[in-house]
Design goal:
CATH topology of the largest domain: Peroxisomal Thiolase, Chain A, domain 1
CATH class of the largest domain: Alpha Beta
Radius of gyration: 20 Å
Number of domains: 2
Shape: globular
Largest sheet: 11 strands, mixed
CATH superfamily of the largest domain: Thiolase/Chalcone synthase
Low-confidence stretches: none
Mean pLDDT: 97
Helix content: 25-40%
CATH architecture of the largest domain: 3-Layer(aba) Sandwich
């Protein structure tokens, strides 16, 4: 028999705030975290805006001696995990460490370290390259650092599926608990990829917004005047537990995670299949896994990247899955405020979805001003909406045609 899996802790580092309370307050207020990029000189780049994390002090979360061995994405992962465990009131020293694991994804990993160490190699020679270079760059160190920091000896995995990494990592953590291989999983996504080369690469794809004069209005999912995504950084980590484990220790429960779907487009390196079939199958699978009818869903936290093709494709997929009920769904893209956090997006957006269920407020899609005839659903434009939400979904789709959807249910003590 499959076990119920619940969410008991939330930790977030984002362009709109560090910590779930600041993050949630700013989302509900429609506050944008997008501004002119300051990490490096962007004068010669066609895109000059980004969603940077500005209020993160790593020493608040990590010992100074460990920082030099961690890329920024690893620092984000440890910090978000520490916040999530504290929020869950979970002392990892009091649980069975071999039944507690980690599943934190990253789409790009330690690219900051790669660029820094290439510079060291070129300027100072091979003997000056850091002995921590390889451990700092590999994506699985997000999970590795967290497991070591908190003594978690259960399943330890990392999924690298581009912009779906965080959602896939949560989904696999959900299944790990569901089938009885762990009682607790610390799961989500982390990304820190603001480097000159990475940013230039996205610019070369012509995938990012060039609305440089109005940074806060650059990310505008589903709006007719959208012109590309806005790159961001951050981490979102959740504590998942079996219902029995959470009840036994008297944990506060935010929501139940009840369904997981995943699919592949087999279509293109970067573009989604225009017919939306991959996203459609993914969402349908999550609903089937949860054992619920499409008409039971109240809210979707959309992938909603603000690119022309993604937003049209996701809208078409939602219509295909939900039929007429699609027009009754509340749908929003919090990327309109946070930017696109790449491999961390799924973790951060899962936190937004869980808080929506727990609090009864749906965050808006900001900058939705000119409706696109091909994107004609209810995107909760510009203002948060107070409404009870019983069932919700979070979508993530990535380069390579990789898709993931998670279904969440409002927690009821009788479940």
């Amino acid at each position: 028999m499959k076990r119920h899996v619940v969410v008991t802790g939330l930790g977030v580092i984002s362009p709109v705030g560090t910590g779930k309370d600041v993050f949630w307050a700013n989302l509900c207020a429609g506050k944008s975290g997008v501004s002119r990029l300051t990490r490096f000189n962007v004068d010669d780049y066609p895109t000059r805006v980004g969603a940077e994390v500005r209020d993160f002090e790593p020493l608040d979360f990590i010992d100074k001696k460990d920082l030099r061995r961690m890329d920024r994405f690893g620092q984000f992962a440890v910090a978000a995990a520490r916040m999530a465990l504290a929020d869950a009131s979970l002392d990892t020293g009091t649980i069975d460490a071999e039944r507690a694991g980690v599943s934190i994804g990253s789409g790009i990993g330690g690219i900051i370290t790669i660029e820094e160490q290439i510079k060291v190699l070129n300027e100072k020679g091979p003997r000056r390259v850091s002995p921590f270079f390889v451990p700092m760059l590999i994506a699985n160190m997000a999970s590795g650092y967290v497991s070591m920091e908190f003594g978690l000896k259960g399943p330890n995995t990392t999924l690298v599926t581009a912009c779906a990494s965080g959602t896939h990592s949560l989904g696999e953590a959900f299944r790990t608990i569901q089938r009885g291989d762990a009682d607790v999983m610390v799961a989500g996504g982390s990304e820190a990829a603001f480097t000159p080369v990475a940013f230039a690469g996205f610019c070369a794809m012509r995938a990012m917004s060039t609305r440089n004069d109005e940074p806060e209005r650059a990310s505008r999912p589903f709006d007719r005047d959208r012109d590309g995504f806005v790159m961001g950084e951050g981490a979102g980590v959740l504590v998942l537990e079996s219902l029995e484990h959470a009840k036994r220790r008297g944990a506060r429960i935010y929501a139940e995670i009840c369904g997981y779907g995943l699919s592949g487009d087999a279509y293109h390196v970067t573009a989604p299949d225009p017919d939306g079939s991959g996203a459609r199958r993914c969402m349908a699978m999550a609903l089937q896994d949860a054992g619920v009818a499409p008409a039971s869903l109240d809210y979707i936290n959309a992938h909603g990247t603000s690119t022309d093709l993604n937003d049209r494709t996701e809208t078409a997929a939602i219509k295909a899955v939900f039929g007429e009920h699609a027009y009754r769904l509340a749908i929003s893209s919090t990327k309109s405020m946070t930017g696109h956090l790449l491999g961390a997006a799924g973790g951060v957006e899962a936190i937004a979805t869980v808080l929506c269920l727990a609090v009864g407020i749906i965050p808006p899609t900001v900058n939705y001003e000119n409706p696109d005839p091909e994107c004609d659903l209810d995107y909760v434009p510009n203002q948060a909406r107070t409404r009870e939400v019983l069932m919700a979904m979070s979508n993530s789709f990535g380069f390579g045609g990789t898709n993931a959807s998670l279904a969440f249910r409002k927690y009821a003590a009788v479940c």
